[in-house]
Design a protein that fits this description.
The protein contains nine helices and five strands. It has a five-stranded mixed beta sheet, sandwiched between helices. Helix 2 packs across helix 3 and helix 5 runs antiparallel to helix 6.
Length: 244
Amino acid sequence: MANSNDLTPNKTIPITQWAPEDRPREKMLSQGKKSLTDSELIAILLRTGIKGASAIDLAKLILQRNNNSITNLARLEVADLTDSFKGMGMAKAVTVLAALELGNGMLKENRENKDEIIRNSEDLFRFIAPRIIDLSHEEFWAIYLTQRNKVVWIQRIGMGGLTQTTVDLRIIFKAALEHNAVALAVAHNHPSGQLRPSQADKDLTRRIAEAGNIMHIKLMEHLIVGIGPEGKRDYFSFTENGLL
């Protein structure tokens, strides 16, 4: 991120001088929350602007610096905001990121509160992505399934740094036996957004599949998930690419 604000102070009109229907709070009350743009919603969280910039101006700049992607914004830490936008204090940064984390929690909760069936890579991606796709470090998860592909258990197997994490096959299959799983899927994230598997990823997948064959627990999929340079949430499927 750049370290200065691309705003012209004398062109900024305070929100208090806008028409009532254009002010974010008033617009939400009169037209409903669905009527607001992302920048208007963020402006409500910010409450006030900074020197030379209204809350709307600041919200638009924050989004612009993150490729207009809420997903990219949610990956930031408090210091990323306070260091990049002069005059933006910790309270504003904490409020924005806390609200985004609540939204992420809602996605996780929706998945956890219903029976989840994993039929294919897209199902698995929708299920696992909210947990790991926006992390700044790698995590490796296992998802345990019944004969009908219903999720019976999900467990984080390991976490590491920016480029790798340690995975213990004994932990994977201990949980499989404890929950009477007949199949499993695994997934991990690449914080870099580069989704192609490394040789280590391929070797690990092969070892999990071989161990599963011995125990009659099928490895149905391995996904690598990540966020590309334009903020696109995507995945690499070992099954779809003939690697499993």
